[in-house]
Amino acid sequence: MALRSKFLALFLIHICLLLSLCLAADPFVSYDFEVSYITASPLGVPQQVIAINGKFPGPTINVTTNNNVAINVKNKLDENLLMHWSGIQQRRSSWQDGVLGTNCPIPPKWNWTYQFQVKDQIGSFFYFPTLHMQRASGGFGSFVINNRAIIPIPFDTPHGDIVILIGDWYKRNHTALRKALDAGKDLGMPDGVLINGKGPYQYNTTLVPDGIDYETIEVQPGKTYRIRVHNVGTSTSLNFRIQNHNLLLAESEGSYTVQQNYTSLDIHVGQSYSFLVTMDQNASADYYIVASARFVNESQWKRVTGVAILHYTNSKGKAKGPLPEAPNDEFDKTFSMNQARSIRWNVSASGARPNPQGSFRYGSINVTDIYVLKNKPLVTINGKRRATLSGISFVNPTTPIRLADQFKVKGAYKLDFPETPLRGPPKMATSVINGTYRGFMEVILQNNDTKMHSYHLSGYAVFVVGMDYGEWTENSRGTYNKWDGIARSTVQAYPGAWTAILVSLDNVGVWNLRTENLDSWYLGQETYIRIVNPEETNKTELPIPDNALFCGELSKLQKPEDISFAVSITSNRSKLLFMLLMAVCALMSVFG
């Protein structure tokens, strides 16, 4: 009996060691996404939208810094699908980024599990489908990364956390919009603006018909809330404001900001912000939440306005009166640019780590690579309307760039994207930027179009160091903010103006650089930055996932069962723990 007891004790010690090793690592969080079509009427007309688990918009992903995230995506659409986690840096793993340069698409009726760690990140982000302009039909949702408990946030803990998804919206679905672009047409004026997937409150009986379902956000008087606002729309910059309430800006796309009050803020396509809003008004009536179109003929675009309701729990009546006014600067864009320049990095706050955000002295690092990326109005190439970046309209490869590298597929792309715009005629090509590992790149986004554009770089937060009207020159560097420029993943470039960003190329992989305007993106305004560690060590890039999909020149490597049974680290790990615990229980019953 004594021998049995010693054996059991020894066994339990080993079990405890195994359990402690399993539990000591960063926690796992898992989600299941079923992506499908449903019928909804956000603007009063039934239309096909893309839902996640039957919901439009999709559910919020809520995780904590350094969590391991597994998201099993089931594609129930009638076309290929990729999901992108905008602003999630995918450290060492561009395999999980969900764009065609790195991933083969998930075919209809198949599923695939994304697995990544939100390493050293905090903040407000969102996810969406990247193919075929699908985001114009939905499939988007919020992605929140909370601080670890040991890292203080630079403000008092809010009473609650509220997500607001804003975006322009068409009554035509993405398929119809795509056909219009393929036919050489413009998308035209959107039919409205949605707030959390719902149409506008009927603030005006002429502009808003009866029967529109609108969003109501209930709050408690006297409390302060963190409100995370994301522009998930197609191509329209929106001015966001809450009637009679100040917006205290606190964070943008993973970086805490210097806290400043705004009565309204321009939020461009693909951008995310966190505001602290105190419910300090009287409760005689509800209040308007407004998102209205910017940088357009506002008298003609009045219908492109989203209106929701802020409802105090002790409110005595409905919202009334005219909407709070947007900035009155239709013919003077300096107001918006000056507002953008005022958004600065809180260099003394801790981000995802205990050290201050400003401990990375970006302004004193020598630049190794300079790229001037010029956007022009649409051009015609080979009889087709195309969007270009520096004279090149990107053609997605049949074999994703990262897969082509892994399996040494020749001719999939060229590392020849020019440092300055092409002087000759525009062309279509799979042209990629050759980034230097651990280099420091300066990128000038020169927008010579008449429309506002915003640009996103996957895999990184970039430092926004300058913007101004006119053509960028080397003398423009004298205006750069070299101390507290905000670090973010999506930055605007005003029409007829330039924006300068700096980025430290320390994340190995293939990373998408694109316009967030869906029409121009669909028509080719993007490229990729390829960053390779010449030492080829797993310390700087994770190996190809076990469940990787294959397409193009590598289609023969794909087996149907590779997708039918999605690999999930989370489930495997949970099963291991369950089996160990079951074994302990069985032995305890035997030796008890």
UniProtKB/TrEMBL annotation:
Top-level lineage group: Eukaryota
Any GO molecular function: copper ion binding
Cofactor annotation: Cu cation
Membrane-topology descriptor: Lipid-anchor; GPI-anchor
Signal peptide as annotated in the record: 1-24
Cellular location(s): Cell membrane
Chief location category: membrane
Keywords: Cell membrane, Copper, Glycoprotein, GPI-anchor, Lipoprotein, Membrane, Metal-binding, Signal
Pfam families: Cu-oxidase (PF00394), Cu-oxidase_2 (PF07731), Cu-oxidase_3 (PF07732)
Database matches in Gene3D superfamilies: Cupredoxins - blue copper proteins
Domain Plastocyanin-like, chain residue ranges per copy: 35-148, 161-314, 399-535
GO cellular component: a single term: side of membrane
Family according to the record: Belongs to the multicopper oxidase family.
PANTHER family: MONOCOPPER OXIDASE-LIKE PROTEIN SKU5, MULTI-COPPER OXIDASE
Protein name: Monocopper oxidase-like protein SKU5
Organism: Populus deltoides
